Every structure is written in C-alpha cells, then in structure tokens.
Amino acid sequence: MTVTLADVAARARVSPATVSRVLNGNYPVAESTRERVLRAVDELDYVLNGPASSLAAATSDLVGVLVHDIADPFFGVMASAAQSSIGEGGSGRGGGEKLAVVCNTGGSPERELTYLTLLQRQRAAAVILMGGSLEDPEHLAATTGKLAKLAEAGTRVVLCGRPPVTGDANAAALVFDNRGGARRLTEHLLELGHRHIGYAAGPADRTTTRHRLEGHRAALTAAGIAEGPTVHGPYDRQAGYRATAELLARDPDLTAVVAANDTVALGVCAALRERGLSIPGDVSVAGFDDLPFSVDAVPSLTTVHLPLHEAGTRAGRLAMGTEDPPAGGLARVPAELVVRGSTGRPRG
Amino acid sequence: MTVTLADVAARARVSPATVSRVLNGNYPVAESTRERVLRAVDELDYVLNGPASSLAAATSDLVGVLVHDIADPFFGVMASAAQSSIGEGGSGRGGGEKLAVVCNTGGSPERELTYLTLLQRQRAAAVILMGGSLEDPEHLAATTGKLAKLAEAGTRVVLCGRPPVTGDANAAALVFDNRGGARRLTEHLLELGHRHIGYAAGPADRTTTRHRLEGHRAALTAAGIAEGPTVHGPYDRQAGYRATAELLARDPDLTAVVAANDTVALGVCAALRERGLSIPGDVSVAGFDDLPFSVDAVPSLTTVHLPLHEAGTRAGRLAMGTEDPPAGGLARVPAELVVRGSTGRPRG
DNA sequence: GCCTCGATAGAAAGCGCTTTCCATCGGCGA
DNA sequence: TCGCCGATGGAAAGCGCTTTCTATCGAGGC
C-alpha cells in the first residue's frame, strides 16, 4: 500500500496534525520535531496525496494556462514564461510549487469552456487566459459567466493579451497595444511613400484582429490615404500565402502588405517570391509580434515587437499573487515598431 | 456556498449514491431517475469536486505531458497532438475528458523530477515524457526509480522520443529512428560529393544527440570518409550561428554543415550568409526534424522528417489506454530524408 | 509560591465523493 | 399462490488530509 501521512506520524512518533504542519510550514513546530518528521518522510519515501490535501484545504496548487495553440510560438513563448514565473514562486499548499498546466483550446470556445470547467472542478488556484477572444456575444457571455464563477470560488483569473469584458472586474488583465502598434506600423509604410497597402488580416471575429485593423485604418485615415484590400484568414503561413494572391488580384498596384502576424508574413513573402516579386524592392512586407524567427527571415521582417516574455512572466506572477494587480485591473503592454529589412521605399 | 453532490441528491429526491452513479455512468440507473438527476445538476449548476472525487476513487483524470521546451515547435507540435488525442478520448472518471497538462522542464532533470512528483501527488492517470533524456547515470537512476513508482501506483507511463532504460519495462515507448535518419542524411551529402562535412551537434550528454551523431559517423565510416569537425551546443539558433564560426575555423574547406535540428540550421545559414557564403553554392546545410518553418526557409531546408504529429497522437492514445502498447513496449518511428534546396553539389 | 501566558502538540471533526454491501420491489416460473 | 431473481436505489464506511479547539508544559510576573 501507499504510505500515508498517518504512517509518517507513527514513525516520527507524533500526531498526523504535526506532520501536516511540518509539511505546510504554516504553524510553529519545534526544530527537533520537524527534523524527526522530515526524516520519517524521507525514510518512508512519502508523497503527499494531492487530492486529499486539496479536498481538505478546499484549493489546489494547479494553475491553468489556456492558449489557442501551443505549437504557435506566440503562445509558446508566453506560456513558457508564465510557467517559469509560476514555478519559481512561493511555496504553495502541499509544501511546494504550483503546477502550471498548459491547455490547448485550439481557439475553440467550446474547448475553452471545457477546460475552464475541468479547472473549476480541480479547484485550480488560478487560471490564465492567453490570446484574444471571439467577439461573438453568446460565447462572450458564457465565458464571462464561467470566469465570474471561478473568481467567486477563489480562483484568480488573469487575462493576458485578451481584453477584459465589462463587468469582468475580478480579473487582472494585461492587454497589448495592438491598435497603437498597428498604427505605427502603417505610419511607417506611409512615411516610406507607400500608397497601396494590402492587409492580410487574422480571423474576422477576434478582438486582436479588430484592434490591429483599427490601428491600421486610423493611420490611413489620418494621412488621408484610401484603404487597400483586406483579406481575413487564420494565423498560419498558408493564410498569408493565399491572401497574397487575392490582395494582388484586388489591387495590382500594391507596394506593401501588412500581415496579421509574423507567421502570416512568412507566407506572404513566399507567395511574392514565387511570383518573382522582390522584397522589399517590389513589395514591402510587415509582420506583427516579433516572434523569434522574424529576425532570421530573409529579408529580416519589419514588425511590431510585443514583449511576450515579460507579459507571460507578469501573468504568472499575477496568477501567483506575487505581483499586485494593476490599478483598475488592467495594464497596457506597449507594442514597439521594429524596422528591419522587409520594408523599404516603393519603386518610382 | 458551493453546490455539492448532496444538494443535487436532495433536489432530485434521490440518494447521493445515485447521483454519483449517474455522473459516472458505471452502474444501472433507471432512465427517469437519470433524467431527474441531470435536471437537478443543470438547475443547480453543479460542478463536481475533482479532488474529492479523485480522493475517493484513488485516481484522477490528469495526464501530464513533460516537454523540454514548450516554445520549441518540436515539442509544441507533439504536445499539441497528444493533447488533442487525449481530449477526444473516452469519458474518464468524473463524467468527462481527461485534462492533459503540459509541463515545461526546460531540459532540467531537477524540474523533471519535481514535475513527476507533483503528478504523482495528484495521482495522475498517465504521464508522457517527450524528448531525449540526459545520459548521466545518476539522473537516469533517479528518473527511472520515479517512473517505476508511478507505474506501480497505477499511472501509465509513455515515453515519446525518449529511449527506454533497461528495466523500464512498464513504460510504453515510441522512439524516433534518429540514427537511421542521420545516416541517410549524411549519405545524401556524400552522394552529392561532399568530403568535408561539419557537424553542429546538440547538447553533448543527451541520447538524441548521441544517436544522430552515431548515424552520421556510420555513414562516414561506411564511405571511408574522414569525420569533419563537430561542435556541441543547445538547440537554438544562436548555437548554430556560433558553431558555424568554429567549424569553419577548424576546417576552412568545409562544403557542408549538418545541424542538430532545423532551428540550429537556421543559425548556421545566417552565419554563412553573413560571411558571404551562398547556400548551397558554397556550403550545403542540412537540418533535422522537418519543423513547420523549414519549408519556408530560404533556401528551403533539406532535413529529416520526423512524424511529430503522429507520434504525439499515438503517445496520447497510449496514455489514454485507447491504443494497445506496442509489442515489447517499444515502437520505432521512422525518420525520412527530405531533400530540399539547402543542399547541392559542392563546387569544383 | 501561585497564576498567567506563550509555545507546542494532540484529538477529532469534517472536506465531498465513491463504492460495497443491503434492502426493496415487481415479475415470473413452478 | 409462493419463492426467487434481476433491476434499482439507499446507507454508510471510508479515501487521506487540514484545521479548529484543547491540552500540556515551562517560564516569568506578582
């Protein structure tokens, strides 16, 4: 049979209560007793029973990190940063670290809810939702309701790169300045002299897509330049590849393409090259996010740097309660234009 | 207060036992009763208490997936595939899915053990270890011991891309044919006429590194060609970049570089380009793994395709018990040479 | 020298669920 | 008609831990 706390207590000749106190360290125990207990733990190779502990204490040391797609570096970087800052954190219940668990929603609202329920069931200590959300009101209501329940049950809720919904007051939120970043990026293209700019946007019904598009349009409007063609698609290379054909078809005079993110930009580049168009000689290309590979692309990508690592770290700290939530529950994360080799002056 | 199973029972005018049976569906319950219970669950918005359930049932629906680095697509792809196949799986305890949780070890043996203990504590249903392991005997012994304990406690153990240790009989293992893949890759370079081949290898003390290097050497030996310089480093772009300088210094006549994986190969390419060397005109470059981006690299990377997605899916199924473990507990996963644009005949 | 207080340790009551017996009940074969 | 069986549902005993409420023991304060 498995070793239980009672076995340890018997071996150390103390009561179970004392063993529990030694393990959780939140009650004074005489040094000699503590040592005796720890020795017994070691000798018996005792491992705390998590469920029992969570049941009695009405909380667990699980922290859920929900991402749209683990295989996407955007989430990979943030999740990994969050997980580190959670691991390093203070000693939770059960004499140790929290278990940060990454859950892949695939961007599907249903899976998101499923995971939230699962985490609620586990009495998770905290939940971090990464990435923008769908704007469908029904989905929004369902998720918000679920989050409210989680918060009510004592689970900390952190949004990272996801705008808070009104009335979502009990969640700390870190939001990227997508609008501002996109605006600066388009301004950069305008300054270079581009007048026909295509936009290979992300999925149509997501907050992130909308915000980036709004920034782009704001720049155009301010400069009095007409908006070029826009095509929506997922956040993958294929989408950029396909979008390029359509953008070019809709405006053959295109001299620049702004992509939903760096991955999409890669697809755009591939499609342009395949048509014999040089970058940035014939067409300039810009990405977004500044994912690790974008500096290695040929030419290196002009993009908008998002401090994903810091944001992830901060989200982790907020989840641990190591960092105080920002005033108003919402902190803006800056987005900085990074000009590299893929953008230049248009010909002529 | 939170709604408990007893509340549901009261509302449905049945005993708690019956509610539990409805929820777990492993005992006959009359249709009318079942409906009444489900209605009550709905009306009260009841959420099962996971810890309590796990405690009573002595097992949980957690499946741990340990990876070296989530931000690395190699793991991202496998983990995401595993998580999907686990999610889709049969109904576990607690009337639903299993919770696949991805844990980032950062390649550190300590963190790996920490996570295994955490999972053991949670009475995880299964654990999947992805990626090669350190070859340090002490670490190996510790991990093997821990895995044995997990298996003993009823947790399924699956190794994916990690060679089993002797005596690790109760773990199902999926191993990539790193040796064969590496061998075929080097053979390809030899056939093209390369005689001076440098190797930008992975970390020195890991199984994966050793196997790939062995395959590489086997090809050279069989062809009677002298081994070129080898440099070890981590699996990142920087490593490839740095290694290139050293390889070139050690053999200025180098006409080809084999990299530890595709990411490293990208660094190698960057370094070569910076020195004004063309690819594959002056130097051929080869990667390994066939990560998603390698087809988009310029030039596209010659590499060894590893079916990461399928391997991850299979690992997930093994963890769920949906798929029978392979005979002998070990299945080889093929590695296929993919020739693209980054390798060609050496000049002259 | 007696009482109080601080520091420790133990007793025991759950935490919310699962599951092993049992009890009940209607129907059917003899 | 009686007894037995299959199908359901209830009672209750834990699962292994946490935590309040007490108990004990010295050390000072008066």
TrEMBL record, chains A, B:
Pfam families: LacI, Peripla_BP_3. The keyword Transcription regulation applies. One of its GO terms (molecular function) is DNA binding. SMART domains: HTH_LACI. Keywords: DNA-binding, Transcription, Transcription regulation. It comes from Streptomyces flavochromogenes. This is LacI family DNA-binding transcriptional regulator. Gene3D superfamilies: 3.40.50.2300, lambda repressor-like DNA-binding domains. The lineage of its organism: Bacteria, Bacillati, Actinomycetota, Actinomycetes, Kitasatosporales. The keyword Transcription applies. Residues 3-57 form the HTH lacI-type domain.
